[in-house]
Amino acid sequence: MPIDPKRVLGDISGGRVLDVATGTGGFVRFLLEGLRDHAEIVGIDANGERAAAFTTTFGETPGIRFEQMDAHHLGFPDRSFDTVCISNSLHHFADPDPVLAEMLRVVRRGGHLVVNEMYRDGQSEAQATHVLLHHWWASVNRIRGEMHRETYERAQIVDIVGRLGLANLRAVDLADPDEDPHDPETVGELEAAIDRHIELAVGHPDVQGRGEVLRARLRAVGVRGATQLVMIGRA
Ligand SMILES: C[S@@+](CC[C@H](N)C(=O)[O-])C[C@H]1O[C@@H](n2cnc3c(N)ncnc32)[C@H](O)[C@@H]1O
């Protein structure tokens, strides 16, 4: 059964929504499908180059906008959002705690904090291909000086979010067991991503070689999206 964002978020009236480290807005799509309603969605990201893709997707949608901003220093007043989210980005920070503290600062008391993060343990063989590819992409980013860790274990995410002291905290594991591990379109896109990262790793033959090993695994074992953990609580 495909992932149903309504099953995860359907009881939440979003109000003013902030999506931290929004990238090109992948999680904004999830919010649009899942939230009961919303007044406004602001996506922020440190990388201003993400703005173009974000605006191409949401430019015509009223009430949705992108701002370039560092997640450690959100340029918003205390308690100014009803819902504050972060998706698949905790592992992009040297320390996720200050970012989560900043998110807590800008969410109103009683408002929702939503953390979505893929994790590395307990995955099927096809999902492990996704995790291993992701870890390899992270290693390519690191040799280029970018902060990108391997993904956390599930228990680590529970611990990080648990420390925030949220009320009514709940956790939902998200995966689509019906995904075809050999879907030609997905495999083709991932092979293209492998090619791009092999180019980015020029001068590091060992890292490039790992890409070819993962390409062989992708063709043999296939791939499915790794299970993600969504944790939702009230500030
Ligand atoms: C995997 S991508 C985001 C994915 C997106 N949230 C989604 O779920 O589709 C991680 C993002 O974190 C952003 N990022 C990294 N460090 C940041 C920082 N200090 N402040 C804001 N964004 C940051 C990167 O620019 C990148 O767009």
Query: Which ligands, by name, code or SMILES, are bound?
Result: S-adenosylmethionine
Instruction: Tell how many strands the DSSP assignment holds.
Output: 7
Strand ordering within the main sheet: 3-2-1-4-5-7-6
What is the CATH topology assignment?
Answer: Rossmann fold
**What is the domain total for the residues?**
1
Question: Rg to the nearest angstrom?
Answer: 18 Å
Poorly predicted regions are none
The CATH class is Alpha Beta
What is the CATH-assigned architecture?
A: 3-Layer(aba) Sandwich
**How many angstroms separate the termini?**
32 Å
CATH homolog superfamily:
Vaccinia Virus protein VP39
Q: How much is the average pLDDT?
A: 96
Order of helices and strands: HEHEHEEHEHHEHHE
Name the overall outline. Answer: globular
Q: How many individual helices?
A: 8
Characterize the biggest β-sheet.
7 strands, mixed
Q: DSSP strand (E) fraction?
A: 15-25%
Secondary structure: helix percent: 40-55%
Q: Report the structural category.
A: alpha/beta
Please describe what this structure looks like.
This protein has 235 residues and is an alpha/beta fold. Helix content is 41%, strand content 21%. The chain has helices at 5-9, 26-34, 50-58, 96-106, 125-143, 154-162, 184-200, 205-221; strands at 16-20, 40-45, 64-68, 81-87, 107-118, 167-174, 228-234. It has a 7-stranded mixed β-sheet, sandwiched between helices. Strand 2 (40-45), helix 3 (50-58) and strand 3 form a beta-alpha-beta unit. Helix 5 packs parallel to helix 7. The chain is globular. The model has no long low-confidence stretch (mean pLDDT 96). The structure holds S-adenosylmethionine (SAM).
